[in-house]
Amino acid sequence: MNVGHIKSKVKRRLTPREDDVKAPLSEAGPAANEAVHVDESDSTDSRIEKILLVTPESFKIFMDMFPSEDLDSQTAKNGFTDWQKFVGAMTDAGFVANHNSGSAVTFIRQSGGRIIFHKPHPVARLDRHVLLGYGKRLRKWFGLDRKSFQVAPRAGM
């Protein structure tokens, strides 16, 4: 048995493949429900914000996910959010829900990116703390916060 011989590994691919390189989310164009606003008050860097236009019911869910400092929200009062209403809010914000095996649900953002949330069981209701955790993950991966959402104007207005 030859113990002294060490085999070295040689990398043959010098440049990354096209599918290995991902474009930053900021380069993706706005989804159908995103309104692009230029903040005129900050003229030095002309910051561009993407505002997601959602229904009033979805807006309440997102405000519960990204609470203000006082935590005076509907979820804080009753403690739970229905899973189907959460999925509807995510869909309203430009995500497509794909049910995977088990309780995993992948939400794919139309403008790029994906995130997996697990459907609670046996009862399909999200606890306040789980909803806050989902909000933290959406902030981390997509840069969403309270200011990212607005109630869409009605069609007749």
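Next protein, fold it too.
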Amino acid sequence: MELEFTTDEVLNFLRSCLQFLLQNLSTAFGILLVFGIAFIKAFPSAFSDAFKRTFAKDDGTLLNNNLKKADLSKMDVIKLKINGKCFEASVETLKRFDSFFSRMVESDLSHDIDEDGYIVIEHDATHFEKILDYMCTGEILIIMD
């Protein structure tokens, strides 16, 4: 038995479904929630893979969206985590030169800190130790081989 429907019949059916969904939106969201939870429980690896694709950085670590806020004006020592490498510097050292760090410390904005109290900065840390030494001493140490 083959069913045949005209375009108008299909459109009327779709309009009726849409009206029903709009009138019963909370019920529809409840149904979607139940199906979503059932999907996650039935296919945990698929959900895990989708979650990682959405919330993972290029190196495979997960993005941390649970950062706390810090008011730097009340700190004497600032802890920085630059591309995963940890540094500590006094507020005076970071304010010594007109730079990103002096503006960061002097700003009245709060900054995100991780669970260990470090301000996370996603930049290359290769030369930061030398830059921090210069900010602290005002001198550049050049080692000749």
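About the second fold: The two ends are 89 Å apart (CA to CA).
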